[in-house]
């Protein structure tokens, strides 16, 4: 409550005005009083209303309490108004309350005057604060909906176990309408393989427990399709209680591409391993050896771990990829000198083929033939 309250008193009796002012001095906060004694002065003060509370004597020479309440309702609507008067029948008191009085007090019960003023002012301020909070909440929700509809991502909010918000992208991805989503538990459309995990994480997150914020999961759409979503989830406060805001992107195309690449890599690995000729693959960008078959391990003496820890330059100082012709899908790279694990130099014929292996530009190398050791590599003097 403000440090100073302003009260307008409509009263024509000087002694009552003095008594009223003394009562205000007993209040726990400072209360200033402006007294007016007739209808004209009352209306003039209300032309620029700035009072926290209005106190009205029911009976004055030129107007009564009911008329005064009508004036307040027209000129200063919402201002707490107390009828403070002498003896008035219950019927009149009830009529005053019906016409908008906040309180009705008899002057014989003046001990209640200050508490009544503080109470009606607090009630008004609490009401205004609630209205402001509701307006802020309303504006926030409108902004959230606008931003949600502008987003390229699916947005979900769930509280407890139920969805309470979803944007149009979420409807499109899941195949469910907003009305249908709001009737679902937040894990309902998650694929059975991931359903229990998502269920437990979602509840734990709302309890404040430490669970991953970012993960990928698979869902089943309304028409039965499987869709992969990349989720980021965070706890928010929604109407005073924890809720979860989840942002999701459809990554199904990427997942399918990764699966195709994985299958392709596995096929290459299988073909490579089954080939009786030595084969290996290395990254064109880094020259790091990525894959090698058993035939190459046996022929050059390096273990699998040794091979993939090396670059192509460690075993073949010459540039591999300078094709001189083509043999089916392979480029004929010509004769090269390879270094055996024991230091021997081996002359080989190379067939090389460029491909994408797990999204890495790769050169697949096949050793067409490897002739006998022609010379020993000179060993460095110790």
What does this structure look like?
This protein has 382 residues and is of the alpha+beta class. It is built from 12 helices and 16 strands. The protein has helices at 14-24, 39-46, 65-75, 90-98, 113-150, 168-174, 178-181, 195-206, 252-274, 294-300, 304-308, 312-315; strands spanning 4-10, 30-36, 53-56, 81-85, 103-106, 154-159, 162-166, 214-220, 226-238, 241-250, 279-283, 289-292, 325-327, 330-339, 344-357, 360-376. A 6-stranded antiparallel sheet has the order 12-11-16-15-14-13, with helices on both faces. A hairpin with a 2-residue loop joins strand 6 and strand 7. The longest helix is centred in the middle third of the chain and has 38 residues, at 113-150. Mean pLDDT is 86; it is low at 322-328 and 372-382.
Give a brief description.
By secondary structure, the protein is an alpha+beta fold. The protein folds into 3 domains: 4-128, Rossmann fold (3-Layer(aba) Sandwich); 151-250, PAS domain (Beta-Lactamase, 2-Layer Sandwich); 256-376, PAS domain (Beta-Lactamase). It contains 12 helices and 16 strands.
Q: Strand order within the widest sheet?
A: 12-11-16-15-14-13
Q: How many beta-strand elements?
A: 16
Alpha carbon gap, first and last residue: 91 Å
Strand pairing plus helix content: what structural class? alpha+beta
Radius of gyration: 43 Å
Mean pLDDT: 86
Q: Are there runs of 5+ residues with pLDDT below 50, and where?
A: 322-328, 372-382
Indicate the CATH architecture of the largest domain.
3-Layer(aba) Sandwich
What is the CATH third-level topology name of the largest domain?
A: Rossmann fold
Q: Percent of residues in beta strands?
A: 25-35%
CATH superfamily of the largest domain: Response regulator
């Amino acid at each position: 409550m403000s440090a100073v309250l302003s009260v307008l008193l409509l009263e024509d009796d000087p002694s009552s005005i003095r008594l009223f002012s003394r009562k205000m001095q007993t209040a726990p906060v400072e209360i200033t009083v402006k007294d007016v004694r007739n209808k004209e002065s009352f209306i003039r003060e209300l032309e620029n209303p700035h009072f926290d509370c209005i106190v009205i004597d029911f009976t004055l020479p030129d107007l009564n309490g009911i008329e005064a309440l009508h004036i307040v309702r027209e000129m200063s609507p919402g201002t707490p108004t107390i009828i403070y008067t002498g003896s008035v029948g219950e019927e009149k008191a009830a009529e005053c309350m019906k016409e908008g009085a906040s309180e009705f007090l008899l002057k014989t019960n003046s001990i209640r005057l200050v508490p009544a003023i503080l109470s009606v002012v607090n009630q008004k301020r609490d009401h205004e604060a609630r209205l402001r909070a509701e307006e802020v909440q309303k504006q926030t929700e409108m902004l959230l909906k606008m931003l949600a509809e502008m987003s390229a991502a699916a947005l979900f909010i769930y509280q407890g176990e139920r969805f309470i918000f979803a944007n149009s992208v979420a409807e499109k991805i899941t195949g469910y309408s907003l009305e249908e989503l709001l009737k679902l538990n937040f894990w309902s459309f998650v694929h059975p393989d991931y359903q229990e995990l998502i269920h437990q994480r979602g509840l734990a997150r709302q309890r404040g427990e430490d669970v991953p914020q970012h993960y990928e999961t698979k869902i089943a759409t309304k028409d039965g399709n499987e869709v992969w979503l990349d989720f980021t989830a965070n706890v928010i406060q929604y109407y005073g209680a924890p809720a979860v805001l989840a942002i999701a992107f459809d990554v199904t195309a990427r997942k399918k591409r990764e699966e195709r690449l994985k299958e392709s890599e596995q096929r290459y690995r299988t073909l490579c391993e089954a080939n009786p000729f030595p084969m290996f693959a290395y990254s064109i960008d880094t020259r790091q050896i990525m894959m090698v078959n058993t035939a190459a391990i046996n022929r050059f003496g390096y273990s699998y771990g040794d091979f993939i820890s090396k670059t192509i330059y460690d075993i073949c100082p010459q540039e591999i990829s300078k094709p001189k012709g083509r043999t089916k899908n392979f480029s004929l790279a010509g004769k090269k000198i390879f270094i055996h694990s024991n230091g021997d130099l081996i002359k080989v014929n190379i067939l090389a083929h460029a491909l994408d292996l797990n999204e890495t530009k790769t050169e697949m190398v096949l050793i067409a033939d490897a002739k006998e050791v022609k010379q020993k590599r000179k060993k460095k003097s110790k």
